[in-house]
Each structure stands twice: as structure tokens, then as C-alpha cells.
Write a structure and sequence with these properties.
The complex is a heterodimer of chains A (215) and B (198).
Chain A lengths: L9 H5 L5 H11 L3 H19 L7 H10 L41 H24 L5 H12 L4 E5 L5 E7 L4 E7 L10 E7 L2 E8 L5
Antiparallel strand pairs in A: 1-2, 2-3, 4-5
Chain B lengths: L19 H9 L4 H23 L2 H18 L10 H20 L7 H16 L6 H11 L3 H11 L5 H8 L3 H19 L4
Classes of the chains: A alpha+beta (215), B mainly alpha (198).
Chain lengths: 215, 198
């Protein structure tokens, strides 16, 4: 069997010149190759320049048809990482005792995947914790992760059974993170906030406190 | 007749300075029809022109181009400016749709190599003899000319012709491995010549 490097497929992928099985192979490879993802984006941008070079005025009938169709064409909503019951931002004073902890029961998986899940959730929350605790309006890192996971080809939802509310954790290795969707979580008592823990092996690790916002 | 948009080559964009089209697309994601119309005015000619080159058939071109613009409206919330420009995102959708249409309509037996060979020269000429003198066209023409003939022909057949690598190899009567290498080398040179950054 000849060995070949799937990372060499990026140029052809950007030109949509791959066979279906090569596309699958590349998708799987991209999950673990940041450099390949960057290269693919560069080649896509290069191809877009080729496309721009043959621009041609479309017929007026096309614009009329498109603009008329907007009203009857549903837009996809953005992915939302946190959905809650109506609540104002609940700031917790530093050092507040943790309220009810939402424990995420992981389904039976291989150890490697379990650790990946833990690491991925931690990455998400580590990236977001700064924002939560500082409550600055800067959302770029969180928004980027949100978008990445919502469109990642390797995104996998992990269901969780809870005693309070429901949680879906969507892990996307290609985004080095995960999105946690919590619903039905009641606002914590005054002076308290939620704290999220990741269970890895026999250790519980706190990954930050949550500000609940109404979206 | 072709349109000229005020061109803002991606490579000249400063870091941390979102291009106007990226901003507009984010507004479209929030249902802003005026923003969508602005996007349409700037990008529909590129979408239409590219699809026309790949499909050849004018009637199908308008249909597919319409689908693409509506897809832009539909999926605007999934655009992430951190992962690429709005132009790249839109033209990626456009090219993908055009290729899907071509491949679903043509069985491989109809892609006879005689037709393919005769169109190679024409395809390259159509790009090289572009009447419009916009900066973008001049840059692309210049950078395509800087490739070796086999690199240029491979990329032209793949991108503007919607050919797979195997089909390019058959059309050019070259080994598949050679075509794969030429495609990659050619795209690297194009990328660097055009100054494209991710």
C-alpha cells in the first residue's frame, strides 16, 4: 500500500476537484491538523480571486427574483451556547459558595475520548471564564468558538442527564473546544452563582463560574 | 458588459480591520435586507460570472446563481470572519454549487477528452483576454501567466471547468500524480503571487 499524505489534498479541495472519498479523507485529517485548515482557507481565498476575475453583470431579473424571495426564505439562526430561563445577569461576589453543581455524566467512552471531552469543555470555559468573571463586553473568543463548533464537520453532541435542567455538550476537536447548552436552569439564590466542574477520571476540576444571561 | 466594484484585495486588508463586506454579511445574519442588497450589488456579478464559466448554459446559470444568493441569505449566521473573508465564503458556496450541478448532469462518459482538449486553450484565453481592466483581473491574469503551462491548464480545467483531478489528467493526457503535484504547486504560486493570507 502506497503511503500518501492527506495534507497534500488541500489545494485540490479548494478547487472542488477531489473525489468523494478524498473529501472524506481530508475532512477527517483536518480535524487534527491546524496548519492544513489554515492552508485550505488560503487556497479557498486564492480560488475566490480566480472566481472574481470572471465577474459578469447578472440580468436584472435575477435581482428581482432574489429580493422577492427573501421574505419567504428562512434564515438559519446562529448557534447559541447558553439558553436559560429568563434571568438578569447574576453576579456572584468573589469567593461565593457554589450553588447547585450541574454534573455532566459522560456516556461510556474510551478513556482517550473521555479526557478529550474534559479537556475540550475546559478549553471552552477557560476561554470564556475571563469574560464571565470580568464581565467585559468582549466576546470574540467565545463567539469564534461558538461559530466554529456550529459548523465543524467533526462536531459531536454528548447528551447529559441532569437532576436540574438539561445539558448538551457539543465537542468539536477541530475547534479545540466545545459548546455547552444548558436549558431549564433556574437562577441561583441571591449572592450565589453557578460553578461548572469537569469530571476527569477521579478528579473534579472547577473551570469557572457562570453568569447567566437571557438570550 | 461587466461591472467594476471598488476593489479591496484581501491581501491589503490590515489585521484587525474587518472589511466592509464582512461587516455587511454579519448584518445580513441579523435579517438586515438593506445589508443583503449591498452584498448582492457587490457579489452577485462574481457569483453569476463564475457560475456562467463553469455551467456554460445561460438559463441554468441564472437559476443556480439565484440559489447561491439565497443560500447566502439563509446561512449568513454561519459566516465567521475569523476563518475567511465574505468574498471567499460566498464564492466557495458558488463554486461548490456549480460543480455539484455539472457533476449531477454529466455522466463521466460524456466528458470526452477531445472536447476537453479543445476548450483548454479557449478557457485560458477567456481569462487572459479579459476586457475589464480592474485591478483584480489584472493581478489574476499576471499571476496565471507566471505559472507553467501545465500548472495553468490543470488549475483552469479544475476551477473554471469543474473537473476532478482524474478528469484533468484524462483531458491533458498526463499521469494523475503529475496533475496532483501541478495543481498544488500552481496554487501555492498563485497564492503567493496574489498575496493571499488566511
Amino acid at each position: 500500500m502506497t503511503t500518501h499524505d492527506p495534507s497534500l489534498l488541500t489545494a485540490a479541495a479548494a478547487l472542488d476537484a477531489l473525489e468523494p472519498d478524498e473529501n472524506v479523507e481530508l475532512d477527517q485529517h483536518l480535524a487534527g491538523c491546524e496548519a492544513c485548515r489554515v492552508e485550505l482557507a488560503e487556497f479557498r481565498a486564492t480560488a475566490a480571486r480566480l472566481g472574481s476575475a470572471v465577474a459578469e453583470a447578472p440580468p436584472p431579473s435575477m435581482k428581482i427574483a432574489v429580493m422577492a424571495a427573501l421574505d419567504v426564505t428562512r434564515q438559519l439562526p446562529p448557534e447559541v451556547p447558553v439558553a436559560t430561563t429568563p434571568a438578569a445577569t447574576v453576579p456572584g461576589p468573589p469567593g461565593a459558595a457554589p450553588a447547585t453543581v450541574t454534573r455532566i455524566d459522560e456516556p461510556r467512552r474510551r478513556t482517550g475520548t473521555r479526557l478529550l471531552l474534559a479537556a475540550a469543555v475546559a478549553t471552552l470555559l477557560a476561554a470564556g471564564a475571563l469574560w464571565w468573571t470580568n464581565r467585559t463586553p468582549e466576546l470574540t473568543a467565545q463567539e469564534q468558538l461558538k461559530q466554529c463548533v456550529s459548523t465543524a464537520a467533526d462536531a459531536r453532541p454528548v447528551a447529559a442527564s441532569e437532576s436540574v435542567g438539561t445539558a448538551i455538550v457539543t465537542v468539536a476537536p477541530s475547534c479545540s473546544g466545545a459548546v455547552v447548552q444548558l436549558t431549564g436552569i433556574p437562577a441561583p439564590p441571591a449572592g450565589h452563582t453557578y460553578q461548572m466542574w469537569v469530571m476527569a477520571r477521579d478528579q473534579a476540576r472547577s473551570v469557572g463560574t457562570l453568569s447567566l444571561i437571557h438570550i | 458588459m461587466t461591472t467594476t466594484e471598488p476593489e479591496m484585495p484581501g491581501s491589503s486588508r490590515g489585521r484587525g480591520q474587518p472589511a466592509p463586506l464582512d461587516d455587511l454579511l454579519e448584518q445580513v445574519a441579523r435579517g438586515d435586507k438593506a445589508a443583503f442588497e449591498a452584498i448582492y450589488n457587490q457579489l452577485a456579478p462574481r457569483v453569476f460570472g463564475l457560475i456562467r464559466r463553469v455551467l456554460r448554459d445561460p438559463a441554468q446559470t441564472e437559476e443556480v446563481a439565484q440559489e447561491v444568493m439565497l443560500e447566502v441569505w439563509r446561512r449568513a449566521s454561519r459566516f465567521d470572519s475569523a476563518r475567511g473573508s465574505a468574498v471567499s465564503w460566498v464564492l466557495t458556496i458558488a463554486h461548490g454549487r456549480a460543480v455539484d450541478r455539472v457533476r449531477s448532469e454529466q455522466s463521466s462518459s460524456r466528458r470526452d477528452t477531445a472536447y476537453a482538449s479543445s476548450t483548454v486553450e479557449r478557457d485560458v484565453d477567456l481569462v487572459s483576454d479579459a476586457v475589464e481592466a480592474s485591478l483584480d483581473r489584472r493581478q489574476v491574469r499576471h499571476c496565471l501567466q507566471a505559472l507553467t503551462p501545465l500548472q495553468r491548464e490543470s488549475i483552469t480545467l479544475a476551477y473554471y471547468g469543474g473537473y476532478t483531478q482524474a478528469e484533468v489528467a484524462a483531458a491533458l493526457k498526463a499521469p494523475l500524480g503529475t496533475v496532483k503535484t501541478r495543481l498544488r504547486d500552481g496554487m501555492i504560486r498563485l497564492r503567493d503571487c496574489l498575496g493571499v493570507t488566511a
